Amino acid sequence: MAKSYDVIVVGGGHAGIEAALAASRLGVSVLFLTMNPDTLGMMSCNPAIGGLAKGQIVREIDCLGGAMALNIDATGIQFRMLNTAKGPAVQSPRAQADKMAYAGRIRSVIENDAGITLAMDTVKGLIIKNGKVCGVQGSYEEAYWGHTVILTPGTFLKGRLHIGDRVFPGGRLSEHPADGLGKALFELGLPMGRLKTGTPARVDRRTIDISRMEKQEGDDPPRPFSFRTKALTIDQVACYKTHTNEKTHEVIRNNMERSALFSGNITGIGPRYCPSIEDKVKKFPERESHLIFVEPEGRYTSEMYLNGVSSSLPAEVQEEFLHTVQGLEQARIVRYAYAVEYDYVFPYILRETLEVRDIPGLYLAGQVNGTSGYEEAAAQGLMAGINAALQVLGREPFVLKRDEAYIGVLIDDLITKGADEPYRMFTSRAEYRLLLRADNADRRLVPKAAAIGLVDRTFLNRVEEKYRCSSELEATLRQEALRTDDPQWSRFNGKKLFELLKMKDMDMDSLLELAGLNAPRKRDVLESVAIEAKYDGYIARALADIKRFKKMEEMPLPQAFDYTSVKGLTSEAAEKLNKYLPSSIGMASRISGISPADISVLIIRFTRKEGL
User: Fold this and answer.
1) 91-124: b or e for each residue (b if 16 or more CB lie within 10 Å)?
2) Cα 455 versus chain centre, distance
3) First CA to last CA across the chain, in angstroms?
4) What pLDDT does residue 548 have?
5) Interior angle at CA 265, CA 261 and CA 269, nearest 5
6) CB atoms inside a 10 Å sphere around CB 351
7) Res. 609: pLDDT tops 70
8) What's the rounded Cα separation, in Å, for the pair 239 and 244?
9) Residue 82: helix, strand or coil by DSSP?
10) Fewer beta carbons below 10 Å: N end or C end of the chain?
11) How far, in Å, CA of 331 to CA of 202, rounded?
């Protein structure tokens, strides 16, 4: 028999990368199979990492030892903190990437990892014996054997590309689909559906007039994504903004029936929060214009990405409507926009570890679970890689709860609510977003990561020192009262400094100077304490809510049970519970169609002596 691996990862996108690296960090052997190593870590759509809520996910991936944050720090060309006019709970880092440098560097990381064997092949099926996965079937070899398998096929399962009435097989332009693997999953009886996403045209910078667009610079100084990056010293590249107009919309309306989306060629459901330009024009006829971000694809290329105008219109129509946009009148399209339609697996069949409930050892991560976005995919890959490795090692699984991480919210949403459309993370999805900020991801997750061997002691020591200093400063501010002769502030004499810091017009630097406590301290320490003070009351209430709900959340439910036998449950509730098989009362409460009355019935049933 050929060599057997502990973990086999299939698919070289952002989910596969984090899965392979996480498993290797835990000391197991990994076979990493991809159709083409040259496209490892390729940014198929927007050449950027982070954004609203997504930036928090990347910080969390970093704190669990992941590679995404470090990779964008090394290859980013513009860094911005979004939502700075709002509170820290919704502020999110974002960085424009040099997409070729990003892919090239992450390939080097993979190839230099001693625990990972990288190989090129197209997986056509799974090897299953006695109900458990034992490996995969490839094109070049008869079989690859492994104790666990993680599938991260992205948009390649029966992938079809649409430009007008033209349809091409592929997961990306010029890359063939994984029809064999898609067929194999269907034949296994996994519940599957079809989704659609899309990407806009890329244009030649030399043919556009950036002087007629609004310039958008990066932050000065730029803030790193990774807590392990001390500082960024780069020359940032500008982005630009322009808008569609009524002429643009007229061209699109006149050709609406030629769009693959409206001609009937596409049956998959597209992302509600990132619609194509023809979808925007149809759904929002009152809008006079739509924003277009013109973003560089890299530092050494003239290609520009037109964020906001993804489309499946014919090539000639794309040319026509883009030439009505200010600054794009002479634009030459380098790559046409297209829509991609693909199969996915309904994620309610997954455990919290992302293992398929009925097929031990098989894990799914990324767009195959109905999500969209590099960040959501990477988070799932990371968790699947961790748990596959822990299963091989005979250790307890690693699960993050909704109050611990956006990653926990993401996975819980998938397995309790499903994905009827491409799932995208938003801060509004996290009920404990005040606790799940981008700035405190290290405090929340690095100790957990260190406990299972995902990060080294050096990283943990640095985080512990940061929050030791933060705790000391906070204690000082809570104890010390203001004593000042400054007439502007003297009326607050006797008031605790920590309470003063909560005031809208008081910042940390001013307070320390006013109180004579302006000894040198690291900026991240000052920011941490300032945020804790501003949100002190809200955070206390959130922690109280968590404590109150914890008992219900952690009350377990059986994993092999027929809920139609429970008297008092509605038929809809019994059907949903049998379908999703929630592991706890808390998870059951988040399933659509499960009412508070149903939850009461479950609590009574399973707190009886003959229950759990």
Assistant:
1) bbbbbbbbbbbbbebbbebbeebebbbbeebbbb
2) 20
3) 44
4) 75
5) 55
6) 17
7) no
8) 17
9) strand
10) N
11) 10
Q: Which residue has the tokens 């006079």?
A: 288
pLDDT digits (tens, 9 = 90+) for 108-152: 999 999 999 999 999 999 999 999 999 999 988 789 999 999 999
Q: CA 562 to CA 423: how far, in whole Å?
A: 29
Q: Is 486 left (phi over 0), alpha (psi -120 to 50) or beta?
A: beta
> Can you give the length of the chain in residues?
612
Six token digits for residue 414: 């998938």
CB 482, CB 495: distance < 8 Å: yes
Q: Which of 277-281, 353-357, 534-538 has the lowest mean pLDDT?
A: 534-538
> Among positive and negative, which fits the CA dihedral 232, 458, 27, 377?
negative
**Per DSSP, what are the bridge partners of residue 339?**
162, 198
Structure tokens at 163: 């430009």
Question: Which two structure tokens, joined as six digits, stand for 31?
Answer: 């076979």
What's the rounded Cα separation, in Å, for the pair 306 and 144?
Answer: 41
Q: What is the predicted pLDDT for the residue at 611?
A: 44
Q: DSSP letters along 421-482, please? A: S-B---GGG-TTTTTS-STTHHHHHHHHHHHHTSS-HHHHHHHHHHHHHHHHHHHHHHH-B-
Query: Per-residue pLDDT tens for 313-339?
Result: 999 999 999 999 999 999 999 999 999
Indicate the pairing of strand 132-137 with strand 125-129: antiparallel
- The whole model's pTM is what? 0.92
Distance CA 405, CA 430 (A): 9
Task: Give the mean model confidence (pLDDT) for residues 528-532.
Answer: 92
Residue among 163, 573, 190 at smallest CA distance from 347: 190
Q: How far apart are CA 419 and CA 413, in angstroms?
A: 8
3-state class (DSSP) for residue 388? helix
Q: Identify whether the C-beta of residue 557 lies closer than 8 Å to the C-beta of residue 606.
A: yes
Of 462, 466, 468, 478, the residue nearest 522 (C-alpha): 466
Q: Which two tokens stand for residue 471?
A: 């705790």
pLDDT tens digits, 461-505: 999 999 999 999 999 999 999 999 989 899 999 999 999 999 988
What letter would DSSP give residue 180? H
pLDDT above 90 for 375: yes
How far is residue 102's CA from residue 68's CA, in Å, rounded to a whole number?
Answer: 9
Structure tokens at 522: 């690291």
Helix, strand, coil: what percent of the chain each, to 5? 40, 20, 40
| pLDDT value of residue 133 | 97
Q: How confident is the model at residue 608 (pLDDT cuts 50, 70, 90)?
A: low
Neighbours of 183 (CB within 10 A): 15
Cα–Cα distance for residue pair 451/454, rounded to 1 Å: 8
| Strands 333-335 and 202-204, sheet pairing | antiparallel
What is the tens place of the pLDDT at every residue in 30-49?
Answer: 999 999 999 999 999 999 99
